[in-house]
Design brief:
- Helices cover about 50% and strands about 20% of the residues.
- Strands 19-20-22-23-24-25-26-27 form an 8-stranded mixed β-barrel, surrounded by 4 helices.
- Strand 5 and strand 6 (about 245-255) form a beta hairpin.
- The structure holds ligand C2E and calcium ion (2 copies).
- One calcium ion (CA) binds near residues 602, 662, 694 and 724.
């Protein structure tokens, strides 16, 4: 208990006792000291301690003055200067009593006055304190945070309405008041669910001097299941001396806040996970300036950049856009809202381009408008689309337009030409004897040629023209805008077609093999709006047939009359197949003469067509070659001729004959050719030395090694070779030395022209000289006049074949030509010597 709170009555008794001690005690002490010990003190020796003591007791100068005066009078009265104890006279005693009473009265009055003043000050203090308390209480009540204050023992001495709410009490009256009661009602645990023992609760901790802010705990009232989370500020309350006199705890219910925080965190985690694991490249960059703020892993993989190369830099700096215009367009789209499926071509760090589909929208991050974009690499889809388009419209082998695309183009230009009144041309280009290459060197080589032809054709057309492959060895060039009239257009188309002819007929080098392949071109002019596309194509086709029939390496324009010829050709192909089966082929023999004597014959094929009559080989051999029916046909000829050789060998007039058989290139390059010839020789018993195979130089140009190989084997068996049409071929002179030939045959064209055309004569002379130099016999074919014969003889050629001597004749007619065997003959053939 505080001293200030002692009852007033007790205080008065003490004062009176002290006062008595002062008046009586001090004089008595002086007297005792003087009488017993002889020590003399002057009366005022006690005066000052008395005053001081009284002042200490009362603390009031008023009381002090009276007290001091009383003490002096008492000391004087009781012990005058002698220091001896005197017994006062009654008057003196009375005076002493009166003085004492006055002194005492004044003391009491002084004290009263002092206490009244004290009381007034106390009341004022109390008022202030009450005001403070009220304000504090009001403040506490108005707080949304729960506040509770405990005393030094831990018992609650104050709390607010929010405290009731905090602990889920309906009214403030329901709140518990003692800490023990509280502990029974509430359970406290850490956020991890670890229960806290009461000693670790916040009030005991604060009372131990601990303090903290935003300290989170989980709470639960034992009578409910409902849990909540509080965030606490707590600490001790100290008095002026720093002594802990209580604890204050401020709490806030953060359950909802926590739930929202957790939701936000979970959503943030989800967003992060989606962001980082997405296969699409996600990027956030500022709307203005395009500076990258965040990017995901897929972005780095797609762009090829490292993270720190991207963050803080702009998409333009990185050069991600192939066209800066693309970003502007994206910004324009974003002005209308989020954009989806925007297809753009981007550039990777490596410079490689790729197609991306982008979705983007604008969001605000920390007050800055940003673009969030997700981009998917769709290059493979794009390539696939392109591939499909290419497959649909382009020929995979040559990369040229395919039939479908060509027809589309022709349709378009036909429509356009009606409007512009400008003519167009279709140039249908077909390779001559392409099948031969395929058959002899195989399809891969054929493919190489087709590609090489495509490349050359491209150099012959303008960019505006459309070039394509219709299939096989057939190409089509669509040439537009050729002029207002058909004649004008034809003139232009002719130039184009001639360029193609001259470009294609130069030798090709195919994987080390030199190959010559000419082409034929059919041309149809269109654009008057009457014909449809298939009609125009058909016309070009008809023209092409005519070009082919004209001997290849040539071009023809379409004329309607060609239709019939084309039909006939189709019919021929069919009847050729039947003719072989029906034995409609006949062999004619044309004699070969040396110095007027018959030394041999050339077997020439005829087709005794049931409807068309006797057909010359030119009408069906090319077709037979194309359809490969030349192989069985050729074998049949060889077998027939060999049988004839065997027969003639028994006749003295013909035993020395050398019989020539024409061999087609298709036959020669056929794998079984050598075997077939040998088997036929064996089967028929013909003397191989009597057989002479005629090859043209042009057929030796391609795959000369194979030809040399086969010729050498047959040569070893005794078979001879004649080089037909000599002088018309290409570069066979280089190989001539290596070819095992027995005879050169001057081509008919030189013989025909040599008397009128100097260069033909020179060629004929050169061939003869060459053959002499090589020790090879030479024969001139197509000799029709004695002038020709004389001219040839003059140049040193003495062996002839031609109408001058004999036309090709059926066997019986040919044999009828054989003279009786004469003495001259015997001499000529050296029989007499034998
Ligand atoms: P080729 O091998 O150059 O045959 C010579 C051609 O010249 C023959 O024509 C013959 O009738 C002709 N001829 C001969 N002397 C004269 C003449 O004085 N004046 C004229 N204007 N022509 C003459 P043909 O029989 O029509 O044969 C044409 C071509 O057909 C032959 O040219 C040959 O390349 C080919 N051929 C003929 N028979 C066969 C055969 O059995 N097999 C193969 N693969 N081709 C053959
Ligand atoms: Ca011949
Ligand atoms: Ca010939």
């Amino acid at each position: 208990m505080d001293g200030a709170k002692r009852p007033a009555i007790i205080r008065s008794v003490q004062q009176w006792a002290m006062l008595a001690l002062l008046f009586i005690g001090f004089p008595l002490v002086r007297v005792i000291l003087a009488e017993q010990f002889g020590v003399q003190f002057p009366p005022f020796f006690f005066f000052f301690p008395a005053i001081t003591f009284a002042a200490l007791i009362y603390g009031l100068w008023g009381g002090l003055g009276t007290t001091a005066a009383s003490a002096v009078v008492a000391a004087w009265l009781m012990s005058p200067a002698a220091g001896k104890l005197q017994y006062p006279s009654p008057s003196k005693a009375l005076a002493l009593i009166i003085f004492s009473l006055i002194g005492g009265f004044m003391c009491v009055m002084g004290d009263r006055f002092r206490r009244t003043r004290q009381r007034v000050t106390d009341l004022e203090h109390e008022k202030i304190e009450r005001g403070n308390k009220a304000r504090l209480a009001a403040a506490l009540e108005s707080m949304t945070d729960a506040v509770f204050i405990s005393d030094a023992t831990g018992n609650f001495i104050n709390f607010n309405l929010a405290f009731a709410k905090f602990h889920r009490f309906k009214r403030i009256e329901d709140c518990v008041r003692s800490s023990a009661e509280f502990r029974n009602l509430i359970e406290i645990s850490t956020l991890d669910g670890e229960p806290l023992p009461p000693s670790m609760w916040l009030t005991p901790r604060a009372l131990r001097g601990e303090s903290s802010t935003n300290y989170e705990l989980s709470l639960r009232r034992r009578d409910t299941e409902d849990k909540w989370i509080g965030s606490f500020n707590f600490g001790p309350i100290r008095d002026d001396e720093g002594e802990i006199i209580g604890a204050v705890i401020v709490a806030r219910d953060v359950t909802e806040q926590k739930r929202i925080d957790n939701m936000v965190r979970a959503s943030e985690t989800r967003y992060r996970t989606v962001f980082q694991t997405s296969l699409d490249a996600i990027a956030i960059n500022t709307l203005r300036g395009a500076v990258y703020i965040d990017i995901n892993q897929a972005f780095l993989e797609m762009s090829g950049y490292e993270r720190d190369e991207v963050i803080g830099r702009t998409s333009l700096e990185l050069g991600l856009w192939t066209a800066p215009h693309d970003r502007e367009q994206l910004l324009n789209l974003l002005k209308q809202g989020p954009c989806r499926s925007y297809q753009i071509r981007f550039r990777r760090k490596s410079g490689e381009l790729f197609w991306g589909v982008m979705s983007a929208s604008v969001i605000e991050i920390d007050g800055t408008p940003c673009i969030v974009s997700a981009t998917r690499d769709v290059s493979h889809v794009k390539w696939a689309e392109e591939e499909i388009r290419n497959l649909a419209l382009f020929d995979p082998l040559t990369g040229l337009a395919n039939r479908r695309f060509l027809i589309e183009q022709v349709k378009k230009s036909a429509a356009l030409s009606v409007q512009t009144h400008r003519k167009c041309a279709l140039l249908l280009i077909d390779l001559d004897n392409f099948k031969i290459l395929n058959d002899t060197l195989g399809h891969p080589m054929g493919d190489l040629l087709l590609q090489a032809v495509a490349t050359r054709l491209q150099s012959c057309v303008r960019e505006a023209d459309t070039l394509g492959r219709l299939g096989g060895d057939e190409y089509l060039a669509l040439v537009e805008d050729l002029g207002g009239t058909a004649e004008e257009a034809a003139a232009h188309a002719l130039v184009r077609a001639e360029k193609i002819l001259s470009t294609l007929d130069k030798p090709y080098l195919l994987d080390g093999h030199e190959w010559v392949c000419t082409c034929s071109i059919g041309i149809a002019i269109f654009g008057d709006g009457h014909e449809n596309v298939s009609e125009a194509l058909q016309q070009a086709e008809l023209a092409l047939y005519q070009a082919k029939a004209a001997g290849r390496n040539s071009l023809r324009f379409f004329e309607p009359a060609l239709q019939a010829a084309v039909n006939a050709r189709a019919a021929l192909e069919e009847s050729l197949r039947q003719g072989i089966n029906a034995d409609q082929f006949v062999i004619f023999y044309q004699g070969q003469f040396e110095q007027g004597r018959l030394v041999g014959a050339e077997a020439l094929l005829r087709w005794n067509h049931p409807a068309l009559g006797m057909l010359p080989p030119a009408n069906f051999i090319p077709l037979a070659e194309e359809t490969r029916s030349i192989i069985p046909l050729g074998n049949w000829i060889l077998e027939s001729v060999c049988r004839q050789i065997a027969l003639w060998s028994k006749d003295r007039r013909t035993a020395h004959f050398k019989v020539s058989v024409n061999v087609s290139v298709v036959q020669l390059h056929q794998h079984e050719f050598v075997d077939d010839v040998i088997k036929i020789l064996q089967r028929t018993g013909a003397n191989p030395h009597s057989l002479r195979l005629e090859l043209t130089e042009s057929m030796l140009v391609s795959n000369v090694e194979d030809a040399i190989h086969k010729m050498t084997i047959l040569k070893q068996h005794g078979v001879g070779f004649s080089l037909d049409d000599f002088g018309t071929g290409y570069s066979s002179l280089a190989y001539l030395r290596r070819l095992p030939v027995d005879q050169l045959k001057i081509d008919r064209s030189f013989v025909r022209d040599m008397l009128t055309d100097a260069s033909s004569g020179v060629i004929a002379q050169t061939i003869i000289t060459l053959s002499k130099a090589m020790g090879l016999p030479v024969i001139a074919e197509g000799v029709e006049t004695t002038e020709q014969m004389a001219f040839l003889e003059g140049m040193g050629c003495h062996c002839f074949q031609g109408f001058l001597f004999s036309r090709p004749l059926p066997l019986d007619e040919f044999e009828r030509m054989l003279p009786e065997f004469t003495l001259d003959d015997a001499l000529f053939y050296g029989e007499l010597k034998a």
